[in-house]
Task: inverse folding
């Protein structure tokens, strides 16, 4: 799924630098919750989700099997083929996975439980979910552009030691300070990455003493 067109920011200041973003975690999907579960036999299980609002029948994407993948509980991360769906009961029936030695999953107490979350794959999602995924893409693209639309820079700044001493201030890594750079129209708060100063700083002031603070905008963005 892709968005049409493109967006830009700060082109007048820094020129054009094409960037293509991919968000593999954004796609039309629904996270549901089991409201009841049951075991049909050792190789077949079912799950009811009373909030499932669309019919899975006829929604298979191509030749792919519709699958249920659990996102919590004992079966977290496990995926199973959906064998049937009863829309009137909102009941999803799925097959256990059998390994080469004949072992089955689910088995014993390792089964789905009420409250477990799941998602479905291999089906054509309703338009509302497609629209929601597109809206999320728009948001993520804008957030990424905001981070990339300003050059990533590191400033080495000399602090006014006398001012710091008179006001009882000691700069430390992690402190946030305001940095201004008229060349790129910058007036933002940044985090100090590291500091260095002479060992005598806290006890004695002498002519020419310097206190250096290095700040960077690795987590800073200006649009």
Result:
């Amino acid at each position: 799924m892709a968005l049409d067109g493109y967006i830009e920011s700060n082109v007048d200041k820094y020129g054009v630098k094409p960037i293509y973003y991919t968000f593999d975690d954004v796609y039309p999907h629904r996270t549901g919750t089991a409201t009841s579960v049951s075991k049909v036999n050792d190789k077949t299980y079912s799950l009811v989700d009373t909030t499932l609002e669309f019919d899975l029948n006829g929604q298979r994407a191509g030749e792919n099997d519709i699958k249920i993948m659990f996102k919590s509980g004992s079966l977290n991360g496990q995926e199973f083929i959906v064998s049937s769906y009863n829309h009137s009961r909102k009941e999803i029936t799925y097959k256990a996975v059998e390994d080469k030695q004949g072992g089955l999953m689910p088995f014993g107490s390792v089964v789905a439980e009420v409250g477990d979350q799941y998602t479905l794959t291999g089906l054509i999602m309703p338009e509302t979910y497609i629209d929601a995924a597109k809206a999320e893409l728009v948001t993520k693209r804008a957030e990424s552009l905001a981070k990339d639309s300003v050059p990533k820079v590191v400033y080495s700044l000399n602090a006014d030691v006398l001012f710091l001493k008179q006001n009882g201030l000691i700069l430390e890594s992690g402190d946030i300070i305001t940095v201004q750079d008229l060349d790129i129209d910058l007036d933002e708060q940044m985090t100090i990455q590291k500091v260095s100063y002479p060992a005598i700083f806290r006890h004695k002031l002498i002519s020419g003493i310097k206190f250096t603070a290095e700040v960077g905008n690795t987590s800073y963005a200006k649009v």
Residues 205-211, 217-223 have pLDDT under 50 and may be disordered.
